[in-house]
Amino acid sequence: MRKKLSSICDKHIFGKRKHMKDLFSLPESSFPAHFIWGSATAGHQIEGDNIHSQWWAWEQAGRFAERSGKACNSYALYKEDISLLQELGHQAYRFSIEWSRIEPAENQFDTEALAHYVDLARRVKEAGMKTFVTLHHFSHPQWFEEQGAFHTLDNLPFFERYVRYVVPALAPYTDFWIIINEFNLGNAPERLLEKANFIRYHARGYHLVKEYSTAPVSSAHAFPYYMPSRPTSDFDVTLTRYRDWIDHEFFFHAIRTGEIVMPFQDVVFDADVKGTCDYWAINYYTRHMIDARRASGEGTRYRHTQLKLIPMDFYLEEFFPEGIILNLERLIDKPVYITENGVASNDDAWRLVYLALHMTALKEAIDRGVDVRGYLYWSFLDNYEWGSFLPRFGLVDVDFTTFTRSPRPSAYFYRDVIEHNGFTPEMLRHYLPWLAEL
């Protein structure tokens, strides 16, 4: 009986491919002319020795399991990284400026640090790539943190001084500006106040950049798709709508109207906020489940959809490419650039699968009327993932002892995608030959 069953499996499961529903059944996807392909990084995560930042101070205080240390040592190896980006065919590179290097002590500016970032931007441009320059990507000077950071609008002059110092020097080499990265998440009461402040910091940064640059400006928005754990539960549905308001819609509404509408706060109208995104900069990874029966409001994804891709609990155990379509259809009023999208996996084959699925979804969003003009994979390099080196996002493997860079197969698949401005099932077969043989 067992032998007979095995024979049936061989015949009907591992038989001719044309009878299987598989990855190679994905449609061929061609993207609009002049579509921009590239990848993204953040300073603290790759540069190393960012010793004057608040994040470094938190690491030394034992707040995280691992410290960033040298990270990828990219502050020293940035020229090698640019050469590798060029070799891999990238058309754009997103990187961040570390304010804590620029102004390590209050009102004390490091001219060598500024020259470093100018040289980085200039070399990226000379290598034929567009630059997406982020002015604040989670980390900032410890002295600014001690002053209260973004918790108070009283610190706005500090941020203005920093922006005025770096933007004129970088403007000749910057194609796209991102003022602040992902300030929109979090539901604690003090966080709601801080997010309302962040909008004002973003808007002030926008107007300052416009004094020196004609390049388009935005801030990168973390855009998880929120879904009720129990779609038939009014409680879960209501809490999901609330989370969407305080994490997503408050920002889009403020940019569109100038109205800052947050719970437990009087509405604020600020004319300087309205219109302060020239494009939507979207970071998308997956969905998040909302559960009103938990104090945190955080739900658990369906067990049958979860894949253990790294040896730790992480938020990317599930692929949900549909979310990129559902989210982007809300953003038909401006051009859209995907400024982050990627997966942490120790098996690069899953990175290929993730890329193929999300690029297919992105193409579908375009076909449905969203003006998507570019895609930046997160991340170009394996990096320090804000407390751990275990999550491996990189198209390029990094040995954190020797700092050797080794492109993965996904990096070459992505190079082919860039060259052809899209992908075909034949490309996937080339990089997943063992799957093609099933």
Oligomer: single chain
The total beta strand count reads 16
Largest sheet: 8 strands, parallel, barrel
Under CATH at level 1, the class stands as Alpha Beta
Could you give the topology of this structure?
Blueprint: H1 2-12, E1 29-30, E2 36-40, H2 43-46, H3 54-60, H4 74-87, E3 92-96, H5 99-102, H6 111-126, E4 130-136, H7 142-146, H8 156-170, E5 176-181, H9 189-212, E6 217-222, E7 225-228, H10 234-257, E8 259-260, E9 268-269, E10 280-283, E11 287-290, H11 322-328, E12 336-340, H12 348-367, E13 372-378, E14 396-398, E15 405-407, H13 409-420, E16 422-423, H14 425-431, H15 433-436
Parallel strand pairs: 2-3, 2-13, 3-4, 4-5, 5-6, 6-10, 7-11, 10-12, 12-13
Antiparallel strand pairs: 1-16, 8-9, 14-15
Written account of the structure:
By secondary structure, this protein is α/β, with parallel strands linked by helices. The protein has a single domain (30-436), classed as TIM Barrel (Alpha-Beta Barrel). It is 40% helix and 15% strand. The protein is built from 15 helices and 16 strands. The strands form five sheets. The chain has an eight-stranded parallel β-barrel. It is globular, with a radius of gyration of 22 Å. Mean pLDDT is 94; it is low at 1-21.
